[in-house]
Design brief:
alpha+beta; Gyrase A, domain 2; 3 helices; Pterin_deHydtase; EC 4.2.1.96; 4-alpha-hydroxytetrahydrobiopterin dehydratase activity
Length: 101
Amino acid sequence: MPAEPLSPQEVEERLATLPGWSLDAGRLTRSYRLGSHFAAAAMVVHVAQVQEELDHHSDLTLGYHTVALAVHTHSAGGAVTEKDVELARRVEDLAAGHGAH
C-alpha cells in the first residue's frame, strides 16, 4: 500500500518537530555543516545505511564540509508522507553523532 500524502497542515506540524528542516519545492530539506570533508562523507554513508533500512531514499548531496538532503515520496506523486518524516527524524538523530550542525 503506497504511503498517503500529508496535508499542508500536517507537513507544517511535522516540521515544527524537526528543527532545521524546511519545505522547499514540495520536499523536506535540510543541510548540515560538518568539521571536514571526511566527516561529511562518513555521514553520507550512515544516511545511506538508514535509507536502505527504511527502504526509502532521498536526494543526498555531499559537499566539501556539507551534507544536504531533499526528501519526498515518489510513490505518492512526489508528496511528503510519514515515510519522509521518519527518514528526517532518523537523519536528525544520527547527525549529532557526526558533529553536524
